[in-house]
Amino acid sequence: MSDALNGKGRLPDATRRHVREVADRLGYRPSAAARTLRTGKSGLIGLTVTTYGDEPFTFTEFAYFAEMARAATSAALARGYALVILPATSRHDVWSNVALDGTVVIDPSDQDPVVSELVRQGLPVVSDGRPAGSLPVTAWVDNDHEAAVLGILDHLADAGARRIGLLTGTTTDTYTHLSTTAYLRWCERVGQDPVYEAYPAHDPCAGAVAADRLLARPDRPDAVYGLFDPNGTDLLAAARRYGLRVPDDLLLVCCSESTVYANTEPPITTLSLKPRRIGTAVVQLLIDAIEGVESDQPVEQVIPTELIVRTSSERRPPRTTVSPPRSPEEG
Amino acid sequence: MSDALNGKGRLPDATRRHVREVADRLGYRPSAAARTLRTGKSGLIGLTVTTYGDEPFTFTEFAYFAEMARAATSAALARGYALVILPATSRHDVWSNVALDGTVVIDPSDQDPVVSELVRQGLPVVSDGRPAGSLPVTAWVDNDHEAAVLGILDHLADAGARRIGLLTGTTTDTYTHLSTTAYLRWCERVGQDPVYEAYPAHDPCAGAVAADRLLARPDRPDAVYGLFDPNGTDLLAAARRYGLRVPDDLLLVCCSESTVYANTEPPITTLSLKPRRIGTAVVQLLIDAIEGVESDQPVEQVIPTELIVRTSSERRPPRTTVSPPRSPEEG
């Protein structure tokens, strides 16, 4: 009966139709689970953020992940796959309740247990973020985070910064790690003492506290780069508390995809990691791997970043004498 | 062995550990499909747009669906569910390859075959958009589309419109249907001949053609409301082709969640349907139904809309004499 209902096998069409009608009358429905057991392929691909392990983290609340997931969804649908957006923690039963053909993992930490387990099961895993250490992913897509950070630090130094601070994270994913080491190396090269605060980036309260701590230090920086989405507004709020004007007393840049920063007071310079391009690329690589397609694309793809320069990192030129408009009396 | 691996059943802990170690060595992995067969619950909820049937339609490319899906994803993750974003067509095998606990369906058409089949299977279905006809959904969330359209038509008439046109769709979902009948009734009430073009809204090219056709008519409207996201830019382009200035010769409003319309030339008035609130509400209702929770919330929820008034629907007041700034020569 199963072959008749699936339109496969060697039953004559009339028989097939008859079986189907009877099955319909009986309320028989094909079991998704049974079918998956037989064919071994489900048409489902997973997407999750494993950086924060079992910490609660609704990642779609962050602009980067939301944009990335949107692009990934579109790319999956366009190739006939459904995207399953999974809870970040491996604790959830749902991981063992869905038969995935492969998974996209965002910012895995080193020795990430979810990635290790999926790879052990023989499933393709493509990571957004180059894998730390020996994490054996099928392919990865990432930005050149070191080059991006060095570009921002040079941009801030060009704008007059003498002591640049960093807001960074406490996790071991390569985004956080590479960005931080790039900062430390830059400091060493230019002879500046590093001034940074690290916090668990999934916790927005911790971010506000870290921003405050950074500006409360005796060696207060005159410019800050924040690695995470809410750092711009957190730093603006902290600057206000300490009576610091942006950009006059404090230059600011943060990594964010949020359009909010075009309209803050003042607008804040942001680094965009181009999550839509990344979301599309990871899904293409994953489906290629699932289908065994020989890809023209390298299995390691680096997507360019974009620095969107706004008022917060442009120090005004030194005042020159400006002639006031002539009043009628002078005419 | 299955009980040992799942941490259930009555095996002593030592036995359980031993079985697990042996299973690990043998490369045994728990089968998601087998587990789903046994427990009957998967922790997975579906989301799809069925309005356009088997037409290709990557719905996440539209701002409304992207925002709604983002909110739905967050709401699902927050309650420990994974969201499966499914291809719009029932043709895809993937529908039968995933065991869903329930599904969110966006803008179902009347007699929607996907909804009918899911309900027949006894699965909870919550629709974004009140169900047309006798579609037996578990619950729905929607806006009051009639009130929203009447509000827009009054707003345009107040701004001086004498003949208001409509860009609408050819599908039978209630959004399109209720918005169109509200327009027709308004026309009857104020004694205006209806001026509208309908097109299949999943096809962006058809939208551009319909906008052009609407403005090429001998009974050309002096104001247009477009029901779909790209109508604003399509109408602006068509207006330019016919030498019509917005808002002087043509007033424009469209229903869109896109931030693009804050920066078009001129900025375009938009109706927001608040997709984030809808996405959150549908998932809460669906999970309540799956878990058999007695909900405080009604199973029919109406979310308020918001008209964001911009230049395109504000006719300038009649010119009054403005004194030019005095030049020095006159001082």
Automatic annotation (TrEMBL), chains A, B:
Gene3D superfamilies xref list: 3.40.50.2300, lambda repressor-like DNA-binding domains
Cross-referenced InterPro entries: HTH_LacI, LacI/GalR-like_sensor, Lambda_DNA-bd_dom_sf, Peripla_BP_I
Signal sequence residues: none
Residues in HTH lacI-type domain copies: 1-39
GO molecular function: DNA-binding transcription factor activity; transcription cis-regulatory region binding
Organism domain of life: Bacteria
Keyword Transmembrane appears in the UniProt entry: no
Stretches the record annotates as Disordered: 311-331
PROSITE patterns: HTH_LACI_2
Keywords: DNA-binding, Transcription, Transcription regulation
Coiled coil start-end: none
Pfam families the UniProt entry points to: Peripla_BP_3 (PF13377)
Protein name in the entry: LacI family transcriptional regulator
